[in-house]
Fold this sequence. Notes:
Layout: H1 22-25, H2 27-31, H3 46-58, H4 72-84, H5 89-97, H6 100-103, H7 107-117, H8 119-127, H9 142-153, H10 158-182, H11 194-209, H12 215-232
Helix pairs in contact: 3-5, 4-5, 4-10, 5-8, 5-10, 7-8, 9-11, 10-12, 11-12
Amino acid sequence: MGHGPRPSVGNESPHMNxxxxxxxxxxxxxxRYNRRMQPYVPFLMWxxxxxxxxxxxxxxxxxxxxxxxxxxxxxxxxxxxxxEAGGDEDQAIAALLHDSVEDQGGLATLxxxxxxxxxxxxxxxxxxxxxxxxxxxxxxxxxxxxEKYLTHVRSANADALIVGAADKxxxxxxxxxxxxxxxxxxxxxxxxxxxxxxxxYSALVEAFKQTTxxxxxxxxxxxxxxELRAECE
Length: 233
């Protein structure tokens, strides 16, 4: 027996429908909005699990600048931003490994990444690295590396852009959060003064705005950098 309202017949008042509970009266109109959602199809497979373990091993004795937060927290944060911006498995893996060449072994590490995870991941990691020397203490001067990266961003491919933008956004958020906690003391953590740091973040915003990097990342980076400058200057 049907549960919907009966049509009015004879001298039956159409207002009798009001006696039928609302949740039953509008079943028909709502039905088209209650379609079954498509099931989630996982796309992070064993390669991602291996990459997470590999990244954790490479950076196990490394902490974020000026604190005791394990460095892997940054890598996982960047990875999360990439996935939330629509990244695929290779881009998520590159996010986990984006600092491995720069900080943990240079070109030898890059070769291992290529062997384990493929050339696409290796290319994205290399593109996000501002140095490939095996000894991090022998990197080129800070300003030279940053200007080179800014030039590179404008012609980088989609993999490098999504990982790079997520990396810079996560860093900018961390700087803003820490500045609100400890103020000007923050800048002593870095190898260059506050003015140089603020210049770089502003230049990054302008560089990424000229690319096809995901707008959800670039617009948020711009917002965070504006807040940082407003509070610091």
